[in-house]
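hey can u check if this looks right to u? its 230 residues, i copy pasted from the old doc so theres a chance i mangled smth
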Amino acid sequence: MPLLALDTSADIAVAVVDDAGTVLAERRVAEQRRHAELLAPLVVEALAAADVDRRALTGVVAGTGPAPFTGLRAGLVTARSLAFALGVPVHGVCSLDALAVQAYAAGAPADAEVVVVTDARRREVYTARYRLGADDVDVVDPPAVMRPEDLTPRDGTPPAVVVGPGLRVHADRLALTPPDGAPVVDAVDAGVLARLAVVRLGQGRSLPTEPLYLRRPDVMPAAARKRATG
């Protein structure tokens, strides 16, 4: 009973997993511009590598961001369209949740909080703060968009482990810095995204696919010109 998972919050990541969350095949392209063009071929490649006919899929999992409008929309539209065509459900998981899980799996201390940082462009970051839960992560601060300078340490709390692809872009402006030996988590793992969906579905949770844009699109339609009257 395989699931297809995909994320386009930054890079393009695709994975096919079984109903236990074991990855059967995965594909990734480090590309943040041509999501609509490259995603479908990656899905085909991943399904072929997993030896899974798309008609055997029991669901599709999509990363819901936060991310800039164009790339995130491409992933969610693809996930919804494929699920509709196959008559299977589509499930959404916050992309930052997956990065937090990856951080703990990569060695972040179980008693530490993890702050995930990704690039939001416009000299801003998307960020959220987490604690490790029983078989998931617990959200301390929900996803938000802000300037790197405004993401500051908290008084009276241990230093947080800071991870995410936003570090390499905004390292010189972040008020929070990773402690020595902090794990490096540079991209969303679509297999982790799928496993989170499996866990949450097992708990009876609803997994909506509403995108987390957090702000207006970078490109807006031009306003209609007013007709001159004489």
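The domain at 3-95+188-202 is CATH 3.30.420.40 (Nucleotidyltransferase; domain 5).
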